[in-house]
Structure to design on (165 residues):
């Protein structure tokens, strides 16, 4: 039995994406490493799960949020309101789990790398072209630029667990 990694302290690549083109360049490097059989992860998810999760959260503001996260308690919304700038402009912390959800989050389907990659690329294209129409359940209404920057922070977090050995 494999012991789960402590994602708060697991080694990660230090990434900073200022725009979606920077994410796309990293995805190209990850794809090349995958093809060469050199892509590994320091976290608990497969590379495909990381990509599927990023794609899911990029698509939720268009397609709707799962019921488990659609209506967070007012206290969570209030507290996270103070972290809005950090979440959008600085970084997201590893190892954070959504209370009340057995796996700690949603949208981490265990898909093949190629499926996750295709889905995440399509989600980035969608968000880049069209502002989301559904407000964030925790942060409320966001500008198009805020949505894109939040996706950059989220990608930094999850793609950081993928290693190009």
């Amino acid at each position: 039995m494999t012991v789960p990694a402590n994602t708060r302290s697991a080694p990660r690549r230090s990434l900073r994406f200022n725009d979606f083109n920077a994410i796309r360049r990293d995805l190209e490097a990850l794809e090349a490493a995958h093809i060469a059989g050199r892509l590994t992860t320091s976290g608990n998810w497969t590379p495909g799960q990381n990509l599927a999760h990023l794609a899911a959260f990029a698509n939720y503001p268009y397609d709707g949020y799962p019921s488990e996260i659609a209506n967070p308690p007012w206290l969570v919304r209030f507290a996270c309101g103070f972290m809005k700038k950090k979440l959008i402009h600085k970084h997201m912390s590893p190892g954070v789990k959504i209370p009340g959800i057995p796996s700690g989050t949603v949208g981490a389907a265990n898909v093949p790398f190629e499926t996750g990659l295709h889905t995440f690329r399509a989600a980035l294209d969608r968000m880049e072209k069209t502002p989301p129409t559904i407000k964030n359940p925790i942060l409320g209404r966001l500008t198009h630029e805020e949505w894109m920057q939040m996706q950059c922070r989220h990608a930094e977090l999850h793609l950081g667990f993928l290693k190009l050995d």
Notes: The two ends are 24 Å apart (CA to CA). The first strand starts at residue 39 and ends at 41.
